[in-house]
Amino acid sequence: MKRAGTWMVKGWLAAFVLFVNVMFAAAPMVSAAAEQPNPVGPAVYVIRAEQTVESGLQSYLERAYAEAEEAQAERIVLVLNTFGGRVDSAEAIGELVRGSKVPTIAYVQGKAVSAGTYIALNAKELAMQPGSTIGAAAVVDGSGKLIDNPKTISYWTKTMMAAAELNGRNQNIAAAMVNTDVTVEMKEIGRTKEKGDILTLSAPEAVKVGYAEYTADSVEDLLKQAGLSERTVIEVGQTAMEQIAEFLTSPVMKTLLLIIGIAGVTIELIIPGFGLPGIIGVVGFGLYFFGHYIAGFAGMEDVVLFVLGIALLVSELFVPSFGILGILGTVSLIAGIVMASPNAESALLSLFVALVAAAVIVFFIARRFKHRGVWNKFILKDRMTTEEGYVSSSNKTTLLGKVGETLTPLRPAGTARIGDERIDVVTNGEFIAAGTQVEVVKVEGTRVVVRQC
User: pTM of the predicted model, to two decimals?
Assistant: First the structure.
């Protein structure tokens, strides 16, 4: 009995040791399995921002992000390749990226300069293609010249620093990408950004300083490194309408459309009869509002306000209102254009440039066709000259020196018969009785002066 109990204990001990060995041997396998990404999961949405940062891109990204959220996507890969663009559009897109329910991986392919850098910093993760760069986010004007307004630089510097802070990136590096006065030492890459320069980082440098998580040769490589290679990948491209909207709402194009619209309609109003300038002008305005409408910035109320402005301006030409209709029309027209734009400041700038350019065009066209201008209706151009057959009064200079007889007493004015005509005459002051011979001594216009013979 004692012997059987001993064998039983030894058996249990052997089983326990075997169990422990199996568990320890399996532990690495379990750990490795846990580290492997689950091939089953929601889709990954790939959205490409490979153009200038402006209102058209903003509209497209808002639609694409809404689709990804509606599909409850696991991740968004935002492919960036841009030289930058409008600060206001960049801010709106940055807010969209950081506020999205779907985490974003920003993937820099080529360049993410200026506004593109700000967008990338708002993403949860940042990956870069070898050879790509990020940075150079200084604020510039339309000609590419650095803006040195301290208030503007301070605002954009703080905005960039806040975006860097979102995911624990060095704020000083973000400031150095904007402000030429900032000096920052980057020991990780053995480099110091000096005063007067704007910082730009290559892909390896961005990884070393903690601005990028990794480099990836392609979107496929990025998904593999992120553990998302087995997911369904959905590419969200721009629709034809979004591409049209992007083209029509670009700063240069919308200003050009306003120039065409203002010049065409004005030429038709002041030099009527052509027809073609008016049609071109209406088409220019139509494309302006169409582009902003399909981009989601303009509503029918903006179009109605603009059409009302045009109607009031036309009415001013035919209805005397002492300028009231003209003022109301101008205000309505400007309000319609500004309200249709995503940014009032840019709309007013485009409108100002368009007005100046259109005024120059209208001036030269009106000068060339001045004989057809509407002003000709209000100007008397006929000349009533002798050559044209007009005589202002009867010519009496032929009477000078002739002799006649008074028909009435001259006291000192009266009537005399000179030749076969009755002529109103006048003396130099003396009185002459009727039936007296008189001689014409002076003719001044219609005044005939006589004296007694």
Answer: 0.61
